Amino acid sequence: MRSVMRNLGLSALAVAVLAGCAATSTETAAPASSPQAFQVPLAQPPQVSQALTLNQIMANPDWMGVFAKEAYWSDDSQSVLFARQASASPLRSYYQQGINDSRAVELALDKLHAADQQFGVFDRTKSHKAYLYLGNIFVKQLSTGKISQLTRQRSAIDGVRYLNNGDIAYWQGDNVFQIHQDSGLVEQLAEIKMAKAPEGVKEPTSYLAKQQHRLIKYVALQQENAKAKAQYKDELQKSDPTLAASTWYLGDSEVVSELSLSPDGRYILLALTDKNYTGSSEHDIMPNYLGSDGYIDPVPVRARVAEDTPPGQRFVVLDLNQHKQVDITIEGLTGFDEDVLAKVKAENAKAKGETYQSTKAPRKIQLIQDWGWTQSAIQWHESEDKLALMLEATDNKDRWIASVDLAKGKFTTEHRLHDDAWVNYDYNQFGWLPGTDSLYYLSEESGYSQLYVKGLGAKPRALTQGKFVVSDIQLSPDANYIYYKANQTHPGMYNVHRVNLATGKNEQLTQWDGNLDYSLSPDGTQLLLNASRRTQPNELYVQPIGGELKQLTSYTSDAFKNYPWQAPEVVAVPSSYGAGKVYARVYLPQGYDKSRAEKYPAVIFNHGAGYLQNADYGFSGYFREFMFHNLLTQQGYVVMDMDYRGSKGYGRDWRTAIYRNMGHPEVEDLKDGVSWMGTNTNVDTQRVGTYGGSYGGFLTFMSLFTAPDLFQAGAALRPVADWAHYNAPYTSNILNTPDVDPIAYERSSPIEHAQGLTKPLLIMSGVMDDNVFFQDSVRMVQHLIELEKPTFETAIYPVEPHGFRQPSSWLDEYRRIYKLFEQELK
């Protein structure tokens, strides 16, 4: 809860979306009810009178429009608030637009504190809302709109909540306070110190000390006086109701990583972490060669998976009424001591000529680290002293929803999700159904993220079922429905649905033919959509439940909107490797003629992140690449974007197909993509190139190294060369850790396969990349030099992080990519 409540006002409005602005033009999507519409024959691309240029499409993206970001509902459900930020500006502007208004009003700086806030908490009557703005507490009376500021201080408050009696509690650092509504008194409920408790007055124990106290009256008197003062202080603490509660001393070996207060103010749940763990590298820095003072700045960097050892967390309950500390044991978690990596360890031991003997031992546990949510992994019952946590093992094989016995300090497993590969770092929303002892949650146990509900100690009941992905769940204000997003009609089309908790009836509420995010209005009557189509960037829409969709914003520029962009066809490529269908976007060349004698050259783009969906019907987060692909079609190329195995949106088995084997199933899918283009789009399969950034750069490496006849050229942007050098939270999911599973790392790291390079390769990296370190490319280049490979070139970008920022860098990068394809594929 602490990490959630640190969101400060309008500066942190929602979960971040994929980087990039977006674009629009009129397009007609194939109806979701016609599966054959997603197959060949492909539609002819639009004819253009003005060809695209690299200077235009790699320019500052503000020419496309400055779009609304992180939109959310006002408290009265009558308007929407959002931010806009020009690409080159370090500052944001904030806006509010009525649902019946044609344009938004910019909020003045002196009004931001009074604007409706996205992250706030309500009292039990839902008549008041408390929120943090720039670290201070404000309260809004919802019926009148009156706002009161309760704190005005420089030290930021971390979190706030209403207690069941209507008082407000807040926490700051490791201190918890209560503001009494009747008197305005600020009471410190808990002072938590991560230090050893003072030892108090010691009795003499050694011979010399005892002798000193026996023979020297002054020493004995001082001892008695000290004891009397300590006793008086203890009695005063117990008797004087005006004093704050006694300090909690929890030892000096840990730090508080999460803190959460119960709704009645009686209990505090703490998650403690070893104080020596930072997640940063102890050995390395990232040199900034262009430091502002003219010298090289040594920039700290995160630890690599090969050196990172997450310690897990220890959980403690503090009973503030009894001033009692209860340490929670993990034995109540089903499988808490299983050797879940036994087979992996045995395989690696055998490779070294050794044997492995499996033994049981407690595993390291922590609050789940979901990468997309804004909720907490700590969920209190709204009216009773009941607590549910979502926990994960640091080995990534188990996720638990556990209830907590607050008095005894015990977990009870309410749900265990085990995955022999890894538990997803997405689709982990959960919570209590109001007025019940039941929990709702998402789980991939069926193979797809679906919605479930279960009472404590009872069997779960599935609220959704099918081979589609459920996400973004939201409870209706009356708790009669759970709303959710799903790609039920097609993997690449997303819509909003809801399920009636009493009847189990599901209904689709929107009929969008692209991609979207949504939020339900506070009064439960309307949906706010942030929606896009293949050639239309995200805009905001409002739809009453059961009513007509209305567009709210129109920030796409006329220059972008009026250009005849080609909408890529979404096709299903049959897999030759038992994977079923591999969905992909296909762009056709200008004047496309499937029967012409001269076959077309082609390019395959590999999306980044690995676990990301790009072959959908929404506007791509890769907006520059979208425009680049349109440019390539104008130059006579066929272009394909594949959602290779490991991509998001297709269920658990698709996601985990790359477990311990990164870069191999994906290359198989790329092979099928090349073959499909040869059969269906008149492509010369001996004139195909590939490129991509980050994970896409990694796949470019693996394609050229392990399948040297597949592509004639490749460009690897900010590429991972050795997974042992990437971060632990991502890599250990898929490959375990190098000390446990070196086989997986050697099998999956491009640097281990570089001897296979025979075709032209372009390597491009930002020197200030704190995600995929520049060192990855340096090591790969030196390895290729030592292998005496003559077919590679490099380009470096001294000021760029992982996601490039300067238009000049984007232009230089894509000029080189385009030149490579023109030289090698034409």
Automatic annotation (TrEMBL):
Q: Which UniProt keywords apply?
A: Signal
Q: What are the Dipeptidylpeptidase IV N-terminal domain coordinates in residue numbering?
A: 377-537
Its signal peptide is 1-29
> What's a Gene Ontology MF term here?
serine-type peptidase activity
Gene3D superfamilies on file: alpha/beta hydrolase, Dipeptidylpeptidase IV, N-terminal domain
Q: Which segments constitute the Peptidase S9 prolyl oligopeptidase catalytic domain?
A: 630-825
Pfam (any one): DPPIV_N
**Which GO terms fall under biological process for this protein?**
proteolysis
UniProt cross-references to PANTHER family, sorted A to Z = DIPEPTIDYL PEPTIDASE 9 (PTHR11731:SF193), PROTEASE FAMILY S9B,C DIPEPTIDYL-PEPTIDASE IV-RELATED (PTHR11731)
What is the protein name stated in its UniProt record?
A: Prolyl oligopeptidase family serine peptidase
> Which species is the source of this protein?
Shewanella septentrionalis
